């Protein structure tokens, strides 16, 4: 399956899209750590306030996710391997043995049905080569982002915060390329957890990439938005045309309405 970009935004448009959805993005990403805070609670914490009943650890997770998103949104330069380490240093600041450092010890991931997956200890040189090779490939922004995200998740390249770091690194690529946002909705996490567990076991990425392409990419179709706006303006012009014809005792047939609509459109263009 060829994974072309679903959306075509400018970088600035994509940044604004991320800013507008910041709370929901943080809210979803916090579920990687098992947080149960509500969306309003997440917003309150992002606003810098405390919430009764939410632990300091959970508050720290949300605050660092907010800072991680702000980092990738505001950074004007493309993603690099070192920037991935900076992302991890932010989001895993209070969790990792060594935030921002490539893992040099063993790790284990709990999968569905209490199974476990033990990734190899990553080789930083090889991981950097993989990253640079992927970024140079002639494939879509969306394909690069998802491939990097799932590779980093499975390889567990950092001590902690790998899903959060991989998701933000992938979204940095998406934002810079104007391809929308990668964010699997919470109501689809049951299926996603099944697929990610299968991917960890088999190292076959295509199935989860195809599913994510269908279910986990969010954006705005600006062409569709413009078409909707144009249709609304046309309907409004037809209402004005009929009203004018009736008030001036002209026949409200299709031909007269069309001529009147054209005159209204010309008058509006001239007024602009």
UniProtKB/TrEMBL annotation:
Kindly indicate where the leader peptide sits in this chain: none
Superkingdom of origin: Bacteria
* A Pfam short name: Fic
Q: Where is the Fido domain?
A: 85-214
Any idea what this protein is called? Answer: Fido domain-containing protein
């Amino acid at each position: 399956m060829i994974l072309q970009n679903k959306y075509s935004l400018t970088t600035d448009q994509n940044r604004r899209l991320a800013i507008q959805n910041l709370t929901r993005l943080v809210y979803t990403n916090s579920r990687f750590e098992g947080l149960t805070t509500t969306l309003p609670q997440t917003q309150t914490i992002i606003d810098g306030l405390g919430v009764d009943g939410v632990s300091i650890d959970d508050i720290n997770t949300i605050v660092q996710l907010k800072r991680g998103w702000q980092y990738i949104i505001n950074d004007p330069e493309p993603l690099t391997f070192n920037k991935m380490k900076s992302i991890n240093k932010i989001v895993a600041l209070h969790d990792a043995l060594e935030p921002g450092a490539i893992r040099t010890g063993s790790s284990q991931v709990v999968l569905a049905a209490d199974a476990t997956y033990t990734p190899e200890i990553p080789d930083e040189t090889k991981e950097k080569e993989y990253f640079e090779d992927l970024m140079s490939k002639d494939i879509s922004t969306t394909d690069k982002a998802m491939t990097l995200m799932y590779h980093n998740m499975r390889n567990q390249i950092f001590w902690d915060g790998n899903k959060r770091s991989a998701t933000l690194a992938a979204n940095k690529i998406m934002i810079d390329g104007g391809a929308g946002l990668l964010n699997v909705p919470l109501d689809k996490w049951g299926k996603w957890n099944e697929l990610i567990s299968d991917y960890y076991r088999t190292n076959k990425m295509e199935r989860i990439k195809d599913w994510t392409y269908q279910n986990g990419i969010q954006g705005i179709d600006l062409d569709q938005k413009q078409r909707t706006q144009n249709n609304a303006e046309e309907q409004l012009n037809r209402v004005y045309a009929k009203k004018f014809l009736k008030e001036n005792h002209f026949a409200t047939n299709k031909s007269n309405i069309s001529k009147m609509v054209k005159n209204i459109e010309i008058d509006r263009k001239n007024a602009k």
